[in-house]
Write the C-alpha cells for this entry.
Amino acid sequence: MPVPLTARVPLTPLWLPPPPTNMEQSGWVQVLVAAAAAYFFGRFQSRAVGPPPLAPGSADSAAGGRRGAPPSPPPGDFKLALCVRTDLGMRKGKMAAQAGHAAVGAYAALVDAGDAAGWGAAWRRRGEAKIALAVGSEGEIRTLEAAGKRAGVGVYVVVDAGRTQIAAGSVTVLAVGPAPVEMVNKVTGHLKLL
C-alpha cells in the first residue's frame, strides 16, 4: 500500500542548512515589514524644508524673500584658504587631517557667529572651493591671522593635541575664509600652493 504524500518526510541534502524555524521566519518578516514601512513613510513625507513661503507683498517678501535673512552676499566666487605649516615635518595624512580640522572649524565659527554677510551659505552654494597653501613657520601663520582679522575675513587656527606626530600645542594650519576670493587673496595671495 502506498504511503500518502502528506506522511512522507522530505529529505534535505547534507550540504544545505536545516529549514528555518518559526522564530527565524518571523524575524525576517519583521525586518521586511520595517523596511517597507520606512520606505513608504519616507516616500510620502513632504519634501519642503524650512519655513513656509512668504506671502507676496509682505514686508519680509519685499526684503529679499527670507525672514530675518542677512543681506545678499556680494556677487562673485568664494573660497577657503588652508595655510599649512611645512616646517613641522607632518606626513601627508597628518596634513590632510589638520586641514580638515581647519575647514570644519572655520565654517563652524562662521555659522556660530551668525554668518551676517551670508558668506558661508554662498560658499556652500558655489561649491565650497578650498585651496591649500604652504606656510613656513608659526610666526607667518600669526602674521596672516592678524592680516585676515584686519581685512574682516574670518580666520581659524588649528592647534594640535599632540597625540601622534607632533608636540601638543603646535599650531599646524590657519584657515582664512570662507569669504569672497578677492578678500582671501589680499591676505594669502603671496603664498605658494602646498
About this structure: Residues 86-173+180-188 form a domain with the Bit1 fold (CATH 3.40.1490.10). The longest strand covers residues 171-180.
